[in-house]
Write a structure and sequence with these properties.
Layout (H helix, E strand, L loop, with lengths): L19 H9 L6 E2 L12 E2 L6 H8 L2 H5 L3 H17 L13 E4 L17 H5 L3 H10 L5 E4 L5 H20 L2
Parallel strand pairs: 3-4
Antiparallel strand pairs: 1-2
Helix pairs in contact: 2-4, 4-6
Amino acid sequence: MSEKVVITGMSLISSLGLSLEENWKNLVAGKSGVKNISLFDASSLTTRIAAEVSPEFEELSRRYIKKRAASQMTRVTRMCVTAAKIAVADSGIDFEKVDRTRCGVIMGVVNTGNSSAEKDTTIQNTVFKSMTNSMSAWISLEYQLNGPNFAVNTACASSAYAMLWPGMRKSMQRLQDTP
């Protein structure tokens, strides 16, 4: 039996732009997302450049995340949730019309970006901010999804494993069903 995987919505927030279109335009134009660090004082550091997401992201995230929820997230988690909400809107999916127990969030995550260098970081919610599965949890909570919800944390291979999970799960089920 052949199953199809369909990409229904996309979004991208990176140092090249705050939208999929802006990222593509800058990538094709050969622009670099590496610039002088602006989110914290790097004057005493050896390296003063990074591929950081522009400070304008904060305004974008406020359109998608309520202030109280945002205070419980790291900047990286806000990027993730904002991008997810844009991708869901782009997809046109109506979660009211689907079985939410069959919808899940599986993410490839290395870390949440919870560090002392993060602007306006407080010790409040430190544990939750540091949990790598907080990104998938916020998305599942937003859309009340009851299917699988976890983060794969395998360094650079994280996103690849996350994308492979549905097929791996089906293969494991077939092995269990084999007499």
